[in-house]
Amino acid sequence: MLTIFMGLANVNVAHQYLNQQTTHNVITFGAVGNGRIDDSKAFQSAWKAACYGGSNIASTIIIPFGKTFLLSPILFEGPCTSRSIAVEILGTIIAPPKSAWRDKGVGQWLRFHGVNGLNVYGSGSGHIDGRGQSWWGNGENSGPTALSFSSCNNLQVSGLKHTNSQRNHISINNCKGATISKLTILAPQSSPNTDGIDISASTNLRIQHSIMATGDDCIAINGGTSNVRINDIACGPGHGISIGSLGKNGRHEEVEDIQVWNCTFRETQNGVRIKTWAGGSGFAKNISFSNINFIKSDNPVIIDQLYCPHTECSDKASAVKISDVKYIGLRGTSVSKKSSIEFRCSKAAPCSNIVLDDIDIKPALPNISNSAQCIHAHGIARACVHPVVNCLQN
Ligand SMILES: *[C@@H]1O[C@H](CO)[C@@H](O)[C@H](O)[C@H]1NC(C)=O
Ligand SMILES: *[C@@H]1O[C@H](CO)[C@@H](O)[C@H](O)[C@H]1NC(C)=O
Ligand SMILES: *[C@@H]1O[C@H](CO)[C@@H](O)[C@H](O)[C@H]1NC(C)=O
C-alpha cells in the first residue's frame, strides 16, 4: 500500500513540476502606470523574466487594471525558453504622441517577434490606445502598425479593446496557427489606413466574434496566406473584408482556402472584396463568403482583377488568377447607385467558377437602383432575387 501511495505522490510532484506557473507583474519591475512616465524599460525587464523562465514554466506577464502605461516602440522578442507565455492586459497601454517619437520611421509600436505559444488577452478590460490622431493628417499615413506579431506559431489574442492606431491596428506576418477573438477595434471613419487586422504569409488562422469600425479594411488578407476562417465579425464603418491587393509591381502571390461567414457589414465602403493588380501573377482560390448581412454598404460584392489606381490601366498580359469563389446567403441593403455586385476580371486570366446562391441585396433607398456587372467572369448564379445576375458566362 505504502509503495503504491508514494508512487502516486511522486507522479503528482512530477506533474506539478512540469506545470509550474510564474507571474510577473510589470509594477514589480518598476512600471509606474501614471500615463506620463515611460514604462518601456520595466516592460522589457518583465518580458526577459517571463521569456527565459525555462521549459517547465508557463509565464504570465500582468499589466494591472486601473493603470495607464505609456510605452515607446518596443520589441518583445523570442524565441523564449518558457513553455508558454501569456500577457494579461487588464489596464491601458498608450503610445506617445508623434512629436515624442525619436524614430518616426519605425514600422511597429508594440512588436512581438519569434514567440511561440503566445497568448495575449484582455479579459474585457484591457485597452490598447495608439492615440494615432497626431499621425493621421490628410490622406497618406506613415505611422507604425500598433500591434505586430511576426514569425510565430500558435498565437492567441482575445478580449481586448484596441483604439485609434497610428496606422493599422494589428498585423500578423509569417505565423502558423492563430486564434483572434473578442476584439473591439475602433478608429474614426476618416482616419487613413487604420485597418483592423492585416494578415500576410500566414496559415491556419481563425478570427471571430469581434467588432471593427475603422477608416480602412476591417480585415485584409495578403499574399502567402492560406486556411483562414473568419466568422461573426461586425464590420463598419470601414472598407470591409478584403483579399489583396495581390500582385502589385508584377509580384507572384498566392492566397487560398479562405472562409468568411456570419458577418455584418454596416455602412461600409465595400463589403467582401478581392482585389488584384493588373500585371501580377499567382492565384486567389477556394474562397467562400456565406451568411453575410449588408446594411447600406456601398459595394457589397466586388472582384477587381484590374486594380490599378495610380496609372492608366490596361488589361495587361498577366493577372493573378481568381477561381472557386462562392457567395452564399448574402442579404441586406446597398447604397450603390451602380452595381451591388461587380466582377471586373481580366481577359488574360478570366475569373472562373464563381458561384452565387441565395442573394438578396436590395437598394437602400427607393430612388436608387443597382445591378450586377461582370467582365470576363465565369460561373453560375442561383436564387438571386436582387440584383438579378445574368452576366456570368458559363
Ligand atoms: C477550401 O478551403 C477550406 C477551408 O479553408 C478547406 O477546408 C477545403 O479543404 C478547401 N477545398 C479545397 C478543394 O481545397
Ligand atoms: C451570427 O449569426 C447569429 C445567428 O443568426 C446572429 O444573431 C448574429 O447577429 C450573427 N453575427 C453577425 C456578426 O452577423
Ligand atoms: C435619394 O433620396 C434621398 C433622400 O430620401 C436623397 O438624400 C438622395 O440625394 C436621393 N438620391 C438620388 C440619387 O436622387
UniProtKB/TrEMBL annotation:
Record bears the keyword Cell membrane: no
Cited Gene3D superfamilies: Single-stranded right-handed beta-helix, Pectin lyase-like
Location in or out of the cell: Secreted, Cell wall
Superkingdom of source: Eukaryota
Active site, UniProt feature: H239
Pfam family, one: Glyco_hydro_28
Keyword terms of this UniProt record: Cell wall, Cell wall biogenesis/degradation, Glycosidase, Hydrolase, Secreted
Record-stated family: Belongs to the glycosyl hydrolase 28 family.
PANTHER family (UniProt xref): PTHR31375
Protein's name in the database: Polygalacturonase
Native source species: Penstemon davidsonii
